[in-house]
Every structure is written in structure tokens, then in C-alpha cells.
Amino acid sequence: MAETQASDKPGVIAFPGVLYAAAFAAAYGLHLLWPVHLLPPAVAQWAGVALCLVGAALILWGITAMRRAKTNIYPELPATALVVSGPFRFTRNPLYLALAILFVGLCLEVNTAWGFVVLVPLLLVMHYGVILREERYLERKFGESYRQYRSAVRRYL
Questions:
Q1: Long-range contacts formed by 1-10: CB under 8 A, 24+ apart
Q2: Which of 21, 42, 83, 141 has its Cβ near the most Cβ atoms within 10 Å?
Q3: How many whole angstroms separate alpha carbon 84 and alpha carbon 153?
């Protein structure tokens, strides 16, 4: 089914980076009002740094794969190719997985339990408002190629 130029995008509810930034701002604000720590400070900081590095590396790997495929990275722009290389061989959503890892890492660096409270609704918004919409769009756009990819590669991990 051919997409018109106006509908050739997944129609996500918001840019994922903005959703994660807003969620982190909420968690940090709650932490300032009522600090609830998770771990001893040194452990939390090192674990947070490690996860932030993993998340950042995964983001860079995913962006590199998308650029090599010559497709748009931003979900409000049309997909021009189905990316199945790089981290997309292991998960259909490596950039969103990376954002979640980065979010958890930042929450550990701040050492706040509020991040994990905020993470639950954030992941629900991402799943229903971003990921499922993108999947419907990619199936409309790429048809059988996407269905085969979807059946071979997990949505998350």
C-alpha cells in the first residue's frame, strides 16, 4: 500500500528523546523533594556510569546502521529503508532499548528510586504510543519484508 507524503510517517505521540527527558526531569524533581536512594553512593555511581556508556554506545551503533542504510533516524520523517543490520539484527528497537538503558544509568548516577517508579509508565507510553505505531507503519510501508524481519528478530531483547 503506497503511503501519501503526509501519512508516510508512523504518527508517534511524541519524540522518544523528549519522553525520556521529561520522565527523567520528573524523577529528578521527585528525588529533590523526597530522596529515596537505591544503593550505596559509590556503587550507584559506578553502575550508572557503566550503563550510560552501554546506552550511549548502543545509540551510536544504531544511528550508524541507520545512516549506512540511508534512512531517517527521526520517527516524524519517512523511513526510506528497512534496517536489519548492526544492532537491528538482535532487537527491532535498539535506539529505544538504548534510551531505557541510558535512563536507568542516569537514575543510578543520581541514586534515585523515583526513576524506576517513573520508568514503568514511561515504558508503557513508549510501547503503545511509539513502538506499536512504528511497527504498524513499517508493516504498511515494507509489507512482507517487514513481516519476515519481525518474525526473525525480537521486539526488545
A1: 1/140, 1/143, 3/78, 3/140, 3/141, 5/78, 8/78, 8/141, 9/75, 9/76, 9/77, 9/78, 9/137, 10/75, 10/130, 10/133, 10/134, 10/136, 10/137, 10/138
A2: 83
A3: 9
pLDDT score at 6: 65
Domain region containing 34: 16-152
Count the alpha carbons within 13 Å of 128 in the hemisphere toward its beta carbon.
5
Mean pLDDT, rounded, for 9-25: 96
Q: What is the pLDDT of residues 55-81, one digit of tens each?
A: 999 999 999 999 999 999 999 899 999
Which band of pLDDT confidence, cut at 50, 70 and 90, is reported for residue 131? very high
| Domain annotation covers residue 72 | yes
